[in-house]
Amino acid sequence: MAITLNGTLLELCVLALVYEEDQYGYKLTRQMIERFDLSESSLYPVLRRLTKNGLLRTYDLPHDGRMRRYYALTEEGRTAYLELFEEWNSFANKVDGLLHKVEEGGRDKGGIGDD
């Protein structure tokens, strides 16, 4: 079993990268693929959904004779990112606390798997 990145958490990670600076699509997907086991094809639907929902906006700039599509946070996207970030921190702390509690307790002291 592997822990996967999908749904809201995937959107949060995309918003985090764009929060740092506007990103063009290829660079954004490369950064996500470097960090997580994802396919490039899984990210473009997320970008389209975030744009459709008004959290990202796009603009094009020329680069080496071609146009690059950039993604930028809207005000709604900035607000959504900050709210999701807070929710993530709360959730991650709960999971972390649980895992450390189990690790410290061990199986013989009321850990996972004891009946």
Give me the secondary-structure topology:
Elements (H helix, E strand, L loop, with lengths): L6 H14 L2 E2 H11 L4 H13 L3 E8 L2 E8 L1 H31 L10
Antiparallel strand pairs: 1-3, 2-3
Explain briefly what this protein structure is:
The protein has 115 residues and is of the alpha+beta class. The protein is 60% helix and 16% strand. The chain has one domain: Arc Repressor Mutant, subunit A (Orthogonal Bundle).
Characterization of the model:
- The protein is an alpha+beta fold.
- The chain has helices at residues 7-20, 25-35, 40-52, 75-105; strands spanning 23-24, 56-63, 66-73.
- Helix 1 (7-20) packs across helix 4.
- Averaged pLDDT: 88
Alpha plus pi helix count: 4
Instruction: Return the CATH class.
Output: Mainly Alpha
Shape descriptor: elongated
The CATH topology name reads Arc Repressor Mutant, subunit A
How is the main sheet built? 3 strands, antiparallel
How much helix, percentage-wise, in residues?
55-70%
Structural class: alpha+beta
First-last Cα distance: 23 Å
Strand order of the largest sheet: 1-3-2
Overall strand count: 3
Spell out the key features of this protein.
single chain; Arc Repressor Mutant, subunit A; 60% helix; alpha+beta; 115 residues; elongated
